[in-house]
Amino acid sequence: MKVDVLLGLQWGDEGKGKVVDVLTPEYDVITRFQGGPNAGHTLEFDNKKFVLHNIPSGIFQGDKINVIGNGVVLDPIIFKQEIDDLKAQGIDLTNSLFISKKAHLILPTHRILDAASEASKGKTKIGSTLKGIGPTYMDKTGRNGIRVGDILSNFEEKYAALKEKHEQLIKMYGFEYNLADYEEGLKEGIEA
Fold this sequence. Notes:
alpha/beta; 192 residues
């Protein structure tokens, strides 16, 4: 068995997805083991452009198994859009894409926390993509987050509890937001 790992040593935008795509024909399983949907991997086939955010770029090789691993943070809203875009292009994910039940979900309140934190920094802001990735990893490491597997067991209850905790944190920033705007598409994403 041969296992290779491709690591980026910068803050992204390095072309990792393109390199993975070039190497994919040599492997049976392609796994995304960490990261979130902050950027994207743009690939082009037959004059068609595809942008992937969470799905491994091996998805275009029909006979490969693609795994979203437990180190990935997955935004259900972005993920559903990604799936819909691929399906519209005739890409069947049914037997080629698997998601770890231990991957953590980026929730709407993670995105609000990201925006509130960034806004509070003023001139010292870090240039966050505001996708909620940092706050999600904070919940993951703090063992407070919600995982993909939680969708199958009391998701609404777990989401309500974590949402309440996040809203208390957001109050400390004095950040104004409309939760309904951030939650738009969440239910559909969870059900996908």
